[in-house]
């Protein structure tokens, strides 16, 4: 999963959720899909944590020093 983009991982996770919502999935197959879903969820969470750390670093401070700001589209 190391080379999987966040977006692709989320797509796969969403697909697994849709498949698990189908009540016709055999238990053994559902368990395997659930396990993959948990791994994808952890992977996405780690990517978000890394991104959060990079943003904090780029803003030049610790997480406690960074204040949340609303950014309008005109500022970008």
Would you give an account of this structure?
The structure is a single chain. The chain has 76 residues and is mostly helical. The chain has helices at 6-21, 27-58. It is elongated. The model has no long low-confidence stretch (mean pLDDT 84).
What percentage of residues falls in helices of 4 or more residues? 55-70%
CATH A-level architecture: Orthogonal Bundle
In N-to-C order, the SSE pattern is HH
| Sheet with most strands | none
Low-confidence stretches: none
Q: SS-based structural class?
A: mainly alpha
The count of DSSP E runs of length 2 or more, i.e. the number of strands, is 0
Radius of gyration: 18 Å
Q: Shape, please? A: elongated
Average pLDDT, all residues: 84
CATH level-3 fold name: Helix Hairpins
Beta-strand share of residues? under 5%
Q: Total helix count?
A: 2
| Domain tally | 1
| CATH domain class | Mainly Alpha
Distance between the termini: 32 Å
Key terms:
76 residues; 2 helices; Helix Hairpins
Produce a short descriptive summary:
With 76 residues, the chain is an all-alpha fold. It has helices spanning 6-21, 27-58.
């Amino acid at each position: 999963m190391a080379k999987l983009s966040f977006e692709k991982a989320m797509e796969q996770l969403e697909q697994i959720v849709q498949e698990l919502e189908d009540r016709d999935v055999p238990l053994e197959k559902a368990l395997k899909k659930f396990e993959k879903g948990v791994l994808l969820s952890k992977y996405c969470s780690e990517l978000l944590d890394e991104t959060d750390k990079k943003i904090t670093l780029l803003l030049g401070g610790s997480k406690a020093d960074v204040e949340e700001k609303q950014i309008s589209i005109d500022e970008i």
